[in-house]
């Protein structure tokens, strides 16, 4: 192709682009002043006019532009209907090339006259496409074949078109920054030239055919004996000629023939989707160009899809295949943690901390397809884009111009570009055939097989399933053997840590971070521990009492004035800690109707202050399953004059040197260490036989099965994990939790540094890591700026550190330094009595109640109170034995009735010769679930 043709093609492309751009801009201005009806008609005419312009230019230029038009013609879910109707013509044959050109290419490539190769060669082509045209023929040996012949000089045209397309995309991104398609065109520039080598296509065809015909075993059984599609056999190939087996089929755009032959279009597209799911997730080798022209349907029942044209075929690594599978499954489960982990493994980097938008972006690729007849998707997608832009603007405090220039994606992997292009083409295919496809249902088995097939428990060596760290004691070695025995059925991920006489004797991590997150659990992994959080919150209240900021017998309204309404004037601090305030169901109905209310800290405090108690303060001990956290949290903030998380850091985290491993509401930046929740479905079935005791709100236990199945979905979202829910939203490692209880067991003495064998060292993480977001410009004319904390609250940045957490006041910083250089976090010599509600504090707790002041009291077989702690729904627990200076914590991410934790605790204590708390020693499968253990044993069959 000479310079003249090159310049001419370039001029035609850019002059047409400018013409269309200015046409749309002009209409955009004009329709502001017309009625809605006229506006719709005007836009329809504009789309039709410009679609015809695009079509005519693509037919004239051929080459890459035809292929791009074919791609766009399948996007009925995105493009306006006039474009689809017009560009569909590109799915039919283009004007054929002269026979002399075809003959010359064949004879040059095969090195012999056509008559020596073919007994018959049909002169009229079956189809003429952008790169080649296809003729039907009969070989000398009688076999029916099709011959694909590359257009003469097309290679130079395609390479020039790629340059022009790249320049055009860059110009669009400059003119309209929100439409930046550079990553897609960059990947296309890399992959498209491969289509010009037919030897490459022949080998790809053979490989895909072998892959789709083999049996797929994923360890737990075969998900598919073979995908039910047809692929032509390769007979012969050269650089520019490809001879394939002839298969008689119907084109997908021939709707009359599809109807006449009785083809089930729904089943057809589902089988094509299965074929691509197999290629992507099982083989890691897939056709990147599934437009309608690359499919036929066999005329013989059961009308199988025929897959054609494997020139643009992508091979991806096993790690990328697994990351794509993890992305898919995390979308299916709504698991933000696994999604962000998948993004990181794919090489996709985000500049802005907006987890819900990240989920929206990923989920849109796997959503149920919409038929062309229902497609109002342009408006829907535009509306969604506008909402995302608005959220970004609010999050980043950007002006309109800055929003247009800001790209939330820092890096986008090329492999993912082709993957998403395939999904978009499949979506367009279903839209063009007017059928609905539920991609999640079809693709899930294939994604699960690649992610979990090689990760079944039986295939992971013991040395990899237990985190590689030296055992601290003989009992830890025995514990690890016990965990290995249990792991195939009862454990997904687990951490166990124990202190004896201030020294670490157990620090074990095992299993995986999530069902769809096969990374290993490590000592610093963060587990959601639910009601275990109440024991941490209670410790903060005791710390403030110890500092003289409030008193146990003080009325809450004296500390928190807005609280003193609706007969709550007599409720005292010790009523909150002892679950006797009468507010056990406060906000229960509200949260049930609006679960995301828990993410709004200020609103929950406002609403809890307006609630009315159901029983007289002190008259009955009924478990405050959610309200406990907001009640104590409001007292903590009003008594201290600080934010809840500031008090947590000052009172517990920094003195114990457990930075980065104990949170109530996680900050951005710790996502890579989060364990994802799942449910032990077998144990969940046992809940049907459990009845509520007097100290359990019936509303709670009646819904516990529904809660247990729904909690993982809710708590695997980062929105909820980042909320402050001081009754249920603790995220910690077992070693941080055990260290906390080791300090409480001695009345507040800070234990010696944690074991040096535990890697990374406890306390080595930055407590509030900064999310890698683009820096904001400082606003002019003010010395202050607003920033958003990890919980979404606006704070005055003059009193905040760079990560959005407020600085401690000078006097408090001094107190913290003193506490850290000293040996105690409590100075009272009666603090242990307060924890358990004995001695002079006995009058503050309900007679024979299961709680002291904020902690669950445990007794031994003789009935003596000597243990306290707190367990959580699903099985995580933390507790201590005061008499024997022993503390222990267990964290799990496979939620059950607590039988695993119960067995672990019993083994450890019995090996050490220590008494077992009654909650862990009772026979049966009850275990340390906080809700279940508040009902009498005879009601827990």
TrEMBL record:
InterPro entries: ABC1_dom, Beta-lactam-related, Beta-lactam/transpept-like, Kinase-like_dom_sf, Mito_struct-func_regulator. It holds the Pfam family Beta-lactamase. Residues 776-787 have a biased composition (Basic residues). Residues 489-762 form the Beta-lactamase-related domain. Residues 375-402 form a coiled coil. Residues 89-339 form the ABC1 atypical kinase-like domain. It comes from the Eukaryota. Gene3D superfamilies: DD-peptidase/beta-lactamase superfamily. Residues 788-810 have a biased composition (Polar residues). Keywords: Coiled coil, Signal. Residues 751-819, 919-941 are annotated as: Disordered. SUPFAM superfamilies: beta-lactamase/transpeptidase-like, Protein kinase-like (PK-like). Residues 1-28 form the signal peptide. This is ABC1 family protein. It comes from Urochloa decumbens. The lineage of its organism: Eukaryota, Viridiplantae, Streptophyta, Embryophyta, Tracheophyta.
């Amino acid at each position: 192709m000479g310079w003249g043709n090159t310049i001419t093609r370039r001029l035609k492309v850019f002059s047409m682009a400018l013409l269309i751009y200015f046409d749309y801009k002009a209409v955009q201005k004009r329709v502001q002043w017309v009625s809605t009806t006229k506006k719709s008609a005007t836009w329809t005419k504009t789309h039709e006019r410009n679609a015809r312009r695009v079509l005519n230019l693509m037919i004239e230029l051929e080459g890459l532009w035809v292929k791009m038009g074919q791609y766009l013609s399948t996007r009925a879910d995105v493009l306006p209907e006039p474009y689809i109707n017009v560009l569909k013509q590109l799915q039919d044959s283009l004007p054929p090339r002269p026979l002399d050109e075809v003959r010359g290419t064949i004879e040059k490539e095969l090195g012999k006259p056509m008559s020596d190769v073919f007994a018959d060669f049909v002169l009229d082509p079956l189809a003429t496409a952008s790169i080649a045209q296809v003729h039907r023929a009969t070989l000398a040996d009688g076999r029916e074949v099709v011959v694909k012949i590359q257009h003469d000089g097309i290679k130079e045209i395609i390479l020039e078109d790629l340059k022009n397309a790249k320049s055009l995309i860059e110009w669009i991104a400059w003119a309209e920054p929100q439409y930046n398609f550079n990553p897609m065109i960059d990947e296309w520039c890399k992959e498209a030239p491969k289509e010009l080598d037919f030897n490459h296509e022949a080998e790809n065809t053979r490989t895909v055919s072998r892959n789709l015909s083999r049996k797929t075993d994923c360890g737990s059984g075969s998900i598919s004996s073979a995908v039910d599609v047809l692929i032509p056999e390769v007979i012969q190939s050269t650089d520019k000629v490809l001879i394939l087996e002839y298969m008689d089929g119907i084109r997908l755009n021939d709707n009359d023939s599809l109807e006449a032959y009785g083809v089930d279009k729904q089943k057809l597209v589902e089988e094509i989707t299965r074929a691509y799911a197999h290629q992507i997730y099982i083989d890691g080798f897939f056709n990147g160009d599934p437009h309608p022209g690359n499919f036929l349907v066999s005329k013989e029942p059961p009308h199988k899809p025929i897959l054609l044209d494997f020139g643009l075929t992508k091979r991806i690594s096993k790690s990328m295949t697994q990351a794509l599978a993890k992305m898919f499954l995390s979308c299916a489960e709504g698991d933000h943690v696994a999604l962000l982990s998948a993004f990181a493994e794919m090489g996709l980097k985000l500049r802005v901390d907006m987890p819900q938008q990240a989920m929206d972006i990923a989920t849109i690729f796997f959503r149920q397809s919409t038929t062309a007849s229902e497609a109002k998707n342009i408006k829907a997608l535009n509306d969604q884009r506008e909402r995302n832009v608005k959220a970004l603007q609010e999050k980043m405090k950007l002006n309109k111009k800055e929003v247009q220039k800001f790209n939330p994606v820092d890096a986008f992997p090329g492999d993912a570009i082709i993957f998403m292009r395939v999904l978009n083409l499949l979506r367009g295919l279903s839209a063009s055939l007017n059928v609905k496809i539920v991609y999640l249902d079809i693709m899930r088995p294939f994604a699960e097989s690649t992610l979990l097939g090689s990760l079944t428990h039986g295939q992971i060596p013991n040395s990899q399933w237990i985190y590689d760290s030296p055992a601290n004691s003989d009992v830890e070695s025995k514990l690890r053997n016990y965990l290995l025995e249990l792991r195939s059925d009862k454990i997904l991920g687990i951490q166990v840590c124990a202190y004896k006489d201030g020294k670490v004797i157990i620090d074990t991590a095992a299993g995986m971070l999530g069902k769809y997150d096969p990374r290993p659990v490590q000592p610093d992994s963060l587990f959601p521990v639910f009601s275990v959080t109440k024991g941490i919150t209670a410790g903060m209240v005791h710390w403030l009492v110890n500092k003289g900021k409030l008193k146990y017998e003080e009325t809450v309204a004296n500390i928190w004035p807005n609280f003193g309404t609706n007969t709550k004037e007599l409720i005292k601090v010790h009523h909150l800690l002892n679950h006797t305030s009468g507010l056990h169901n406060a906000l229960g109905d509200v949260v049930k109707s609006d679960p995301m209310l828990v993410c709004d800290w200020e609103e929950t405090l406002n609403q809890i202050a307006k609630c009315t108690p159901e029983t007289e303060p002190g008259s009955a001990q009924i478990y405050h399953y959610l309200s406990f956290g907001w009640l104590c949290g409001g007292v903590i903030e009003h008594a201290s004059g600080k934010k809840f998380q500031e008090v947590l850091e000052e009172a517990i985290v920094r003195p114990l040197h457990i930075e980065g491993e104990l949170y109530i509401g996680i900050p951005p930046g710790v996502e890579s260490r989060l364990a994802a929740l799942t449910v032990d479905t077998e144990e969940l079935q046992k809940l049907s036989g459990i009845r509520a005791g007097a100290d359990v709100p019936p509303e709670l236990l009646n819904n516990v099965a529904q809660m247990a199945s729904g909690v993982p979905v809710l708590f695997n979202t980062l929105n909820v994990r980042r909320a402050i829910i001081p009754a249920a939203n603790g995220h910690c490692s077992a070693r941080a939790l055990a260290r906390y209880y080791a300090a409480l067991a001695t009345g507040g003495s800070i234990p010696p540094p944690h074991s040096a064998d535990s890697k990374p060292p406890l306390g080595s993480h930055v407590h509030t890591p900064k999310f890698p977001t683009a820096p904001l410009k400082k606003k002019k004319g003010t010395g202050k700026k607003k920033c958003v904390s990890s919980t979404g609250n606006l704070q005055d940045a003059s009193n905040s550190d760079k990560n959005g957490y407020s600085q401690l006041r000078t006097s408090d910083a001094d107190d913290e330094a003193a506490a850290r250089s000293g040996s105690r976090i409590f100075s009272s010599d009666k603090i242990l009595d307060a924890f358990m509600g004995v001695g002079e504090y006995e009058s503050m707790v309900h007679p024979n109640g299961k709680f002291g002041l904020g902690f669950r009291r445990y007794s031994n077989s003789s009935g003596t109170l000597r243990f306290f702690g707190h367990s959580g729904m699903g099985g995580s627990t933390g507790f201590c034995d005061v008499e024997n200076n022993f503390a222990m914590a267990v964290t799990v991410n496979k939620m059950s009735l607590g039988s695993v934790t119960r067995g672990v605790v019993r083994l450890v204590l019995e090996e050490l010769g220590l008494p077992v708390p009654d909650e862990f020693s009772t026979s049966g499968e009850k275990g340390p679930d906080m809700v279940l253990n508040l009902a009498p044993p005879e009601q827990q069959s």
